Amino acid sequence: MRQAVCPGSFDPVTNGHLDIIARASAIFDKVTVGVLVNNTKAGLFSVDERITMLREVLADLPNVEVASFSGLLVDFCRENNITAIVKGLRAVSDFDYELQMAQMNTRLSGIETLFLSTNPTYGYLSSSLVKEVAGHGGDVHGLVPDLVLDRLLDRFGENPSH
Ligand code: PNS
After folding, report:
1. How far is the CA of 39 from the centre of ligand 1 (A)?
2. Largest CA distance in the chain
3. Of 30, 90, 131, 151, catalytic
4. Residue nearest to atom 1 of ligand 1 (CA)
5. b/e per residue 66-77 (b: at least 16 CB within 10 A)
6. How far is CA 48 from CA 4, 9, 56, 86, in A?
7. Which of 18, 38, 43, 77 has the highest CB neighbour count under 10 A?
8. How far, in Å, CA of 50 to CA of 41, rounded?
9. What DSSP string runs through 90-156?
């Protein structure tokens, strides 16, 4: 069985992430979405909230599961029989750091990293920009799943339905 991980912070999950995860799930037998627990960086959402949102929006993909991890990604992969890391590449600005991480991870464990080119619809999209725009009352509809949009509006006290 071929197993891959899509790792990240997912604070929160965007439609760009979902596109990469869905495409990875069509290539691999099983995909684990690995949510990094980063004790040095407080997110907008807790890791539990991020996982709950991910599980809800990925419920229709039967070969995808969501888990958290801390420490090195390669150790998480080894413990879970994961043999590939799948990541989206948006623009050349992503490339340097992603290449560094991919090469370090291969050096550490021999694991392969596969890059999927981001759907151009989401080329400019990032969780950070979504938070910044939503935090200032901008419209992020269509950039995140509707349930994430709802929770962003709740978090920023802008939800008209509540
Ligand atoms: O969504 P992000 O924050 O860009 O994801 C970055 C992530 C989680 C993929 C990366 O920081 C990571 O793999 N962290 C785990 C710690 C680790 O293995 N570091 C060495 C990387 S070579």
Report:
1. 13
2. 51
3. 90
4. 8
5. beebeeebbebb
6. 22, 12, 12, 22
7. 77
8. 14
9. -SHHHHHHHHHHHHHHHHHH--EEEEEEPPGGGTT--HHHHHHHHHTT---BTTB-HHHHHHHHHHT
- Walk along the chain (162 residues) in steps of 10 and give the mean pLDDT of each run: 97 98 98 95 95 98 98 98 97 93 98 96 95 96 97 87 66
| Token pair of 27 as six digits | 């290539």
What topology does CATH give the domain 3-125? Rossmann fold (3.40.50)
User: Is-cis flag, bond preceding 145, omega within 30?
Assistant: no
Rounded CA separation 88/49 (Å): 23
How much is the pLDDT for 93?
85
- Residue 158 φ then ψ, to 5°: -115, 15
Ligand 1 pocket, mutate which of 5, 6, 9, 125 (most atoms under 8 A from CB): 9
The confidence score (pLDDT) of residue 121 equals 93
Between strands 3-8 and 112-117, the pairing is unpaired
Report CA torsion sign: 32, 51, 107, 75.
negative
Of all atoms in ligand 1, which is nearest to the CA of residue 71? 16
